[in-house]
Amino acid sequence: MRVGASVELSVGKLIVGDGRVLEDVEVGVLGGAIREVTKSGLEESYADALDLSDMYVMPGLFDAHVHVRYGVKPDPEERSNEYQAVRGAENARKALMSGVTSLADAGGIRNVAFAVRNAINDGVALGPRMFVSGEMITMTGGRSKKPGFRLEVNGADSARKVARGLLMYHGANFIKLGATGAISSPHTGPRHPQLTVEEMRACSEEAHKCGKKVHAHCYGEEGISNAIEAGADVIVHGQTLTDDHIATMKERGMILMPTLKTFCGHLEHLDEGGVHARIITTGIWEETEPNFRKAHGRGVTISMGTDAGMPDNLFGDNPRDLEYMVEWGMTTEQAVQAGTLNAAKSVGVEDRLGTVEEGKYADLIFLREDPLEEISAIRTSLERVMLNGALIDPKSTPFL
Predict the structure, then answer these.
(1) Class of the 7-59+355-393 domain?
(2) Using one digit for the tens of pLDDT, what is the confidence trace for 40-78?
(3) Is CATH 3.20.20.140 the classification given to domain 61-346?
């Protein structure tokens, strides 16, 4: 990944990402990191200067739940790993050009997402910082149509071995667990529990030993209860949260990642049937908005995660997730934090990302309009992206 030059930014309005807003500040960037943030004059000298006095500057967005390997529509037949990796690199680039400077791929297949991550980190491809779980750990047949197609486990020892392999051999940045079925599960309903508490606890123990977070795909009360008991850090989707779930999540500092963009997007394609229609027939949709409002209203920490890569859930449209959050009751300030600091927390990298503070990576976006006035400004008024201190003009690298 390219490291940017030495530059000082004169910023009209700085949205820090943790609820603070600073006006007329200077930001010093050196070696890909934020060196200074001050209102009283920079202490160091920088080679270049950029006047952003009429702009709004905030941390780059962090989409903490995507699947880079997929196309816009399901493939009629399985594509090769190599093809999916190339497509994944292009998907990641599209996300970057929309202001997403960090992505978390939460459940890929084989080594595809790791290859995309490594290519971006090595400067072979242009894309955001990537954090990768590798394959979702699932029970036998839980997410597979044929034997050996997904990362399947049976029992706690089997689960522990698989988690160790992801963490040690592939450098997984976090672990993803299949606590329940899914809307697209071939053999079970979305609310049916799958991995056992013991299996998930073994994975959680291995991840936590390495300082890594655990994300649990959950619909339905029993699956959520199992994931919480097993020590998961993040509940993904999370329909059917109970009062007890919410109380425990708040007590433990757990995060809800509601993936609103994928659910709301399904409604626009109901006439196509398939997974789009199953959001209605499974009863998932009717729970989505009240569940989100309940969790948010009671103070559960919520993170951005679009599920981009699911059918018709496009890379490059990632910021729309925050707009749904505002439509359903968040303030714009809360939505910004969901898409920056909270998302960084969900992957355990808030010490490096998520806010504009000294010592963190210089991953920023520059906007012509104020997202705290209208959250869609992130999507509609993006002027420049700064990744690792390097400036990128989204208009000069158009989408394919």
Answers:
(1) mainly beta
(2) 889 999 999 999 999 999 999 999 999 999 998 888 888
(3) yes
